[in-house]
């Protein structure tokens, strides 16, 4: 059975910093995994060396550099909620972690290292094992761009180009793209980036707003419970916008 593949891309709030705090000069994860993020034989992840394995938080532990501490992100909550709401019981969801903390959108432009790695991993996910079908890209990025007046002003155009390039290079012109509007960032420019995110109009593009979700003590990264909620929000967006609408009997299934 082909896996239903979801790409997790962007920066640190997608890779996950839930439960990560500063202790005596080090960032440490508290090892707390909520029930909503529990591992399941029905949820797999693509490792850094392109092997499918049972998914569990931290999903990005081998994707980001060893200098970054990963915790809970939205991926496992998303996958568990999709399984719950669609009634799947067999191994069916494949998560492809690609997010890298502290990266601006220009670092994701076509031809860049991050872009090429994401496209390579996405294509590999469709071929390895029993194969897979790419269902959507989940994108949470933009905090780094709020640090720059120029980057925030051109963010919308850069995001549009990124989405169109990814769809073209994957050969999927209608690939669902679910982005997250920022919950944090530089006060000087956050509203510019959020306006670009919330205002971008492209086919099969949905925006989930994270503003108001609780943040860690750094006032930048989502807490564990905020990540749980965000994962459910992303799942509901996927189900309502891309499954229900395409289901003739209004009973979405991905199995």
Q: Can you walk me through this structure?
A:
The chain has 255 residues and is α/β, with parallel strands linked by helices. It has one domain: 3-Layer(aba) Sandwich (Rossmann fold). It is 31% helix and 18% strand. It is built from seven helices and nine strands. The chain has helices at residues 12-15, 75-86, 113-125, 149-153, 155-170, 190-199, 224-243; strands at residues 3-10, 20-23, 26-29, 43-46, 52-54, 93-97, 132-140, 177-181, 205-209. The strands form two sheets. Strands 5-4-6-1-7-8-9 form a seven-stranded mixed β-sheet, sandwiched between helices. Helix 2 packs across helix 7 and helix 5 packs across helix 6. The radius of gyration is 17 Å and the shape is globular. It starts with a strand and ends in a 12-residue tail after the last helix. Mean pLDDT is 93; it is low at 248-253.
- Work out the strand percent: 15-25%
Total number of beta strands: 9
- Give the % helix: 25-40%
Calculate the terminal CA-CA distance, rounded to whole Å: 9 Å
Based on the coordinates given, report the CATH architecture: 3-Layer(aba) Sandwich
The CATH topology, please? Rossmann fold
Mean pLDDT: 93
Which sequence of SSEs, written as H and E, runs from N to C? EHEEEEHEHEHHEHEH
- CATH level-four homologous superfamily name: SGNH hydrolase
Output the radius of gyration. Answer: 17 Å
The chain-level structural class is: alpha/beta
Total domains: 1
* Shape call: globular
Largest sheet: spatial strand order: 5-4-6-1-7-8-9
| Individual helix count | 7
Write down the CATH class.
Answer: Alpha Beta
Largest sheet: 7 strands, mixed
Flag low-confidence runs: 248-253
């Amino acid at each position: 059975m082909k896996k239903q593949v979801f790409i997790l891309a962007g920066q640190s709030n997608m890779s996950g910093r839930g439960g990560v705090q500063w202790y005596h000069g080090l960032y440490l994860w508290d090892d707390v995994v909520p029930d909503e993020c529990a591992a399941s034989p029905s949820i797999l992840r693509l490792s850094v060396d392109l092997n499918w394995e049972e998914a569990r938080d931290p999903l990005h532990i081998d994707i980001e550099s060893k200098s970054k501490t990963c915790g809970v992100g939205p991926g496992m909550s998303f996958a568990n909620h999709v399984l719950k709401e669609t009634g799947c019981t067999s191994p069916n969801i494949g998560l492809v972690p690609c997010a890298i903390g502290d990266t601006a959108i220009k670092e994701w432009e076509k031809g860049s290292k991050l872009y090429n790695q994401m496209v390579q991993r996405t294509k590999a996910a469709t071929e390895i094992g029993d194969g897979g079908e790419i269902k959507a890209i989940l994108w949470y990025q933009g905090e780094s761009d709020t640090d720059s007046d120029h980057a925030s002003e051109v963010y919308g155009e850069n995001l549009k180009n990124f989405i169109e390039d990814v769809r073209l290079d994957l050969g999927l012109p209608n690939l669902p793209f679910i982005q997250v509007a920022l919950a944090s960032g530089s006060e000087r420019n956050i509203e510019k980036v959020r306006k670009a995110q919330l205002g971008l109009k492209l086919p099969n593009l949905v925006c989930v707003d994270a503003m108001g979700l609780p943040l860690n003590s750094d006032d930048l990264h989502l807490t564990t419970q905020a990540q749980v909620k965000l994962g459910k929000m992303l799942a509901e967006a996927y189900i309502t916008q891309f499954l229900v609408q395409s289901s003739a009997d209004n009973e979405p299934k991905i199995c």
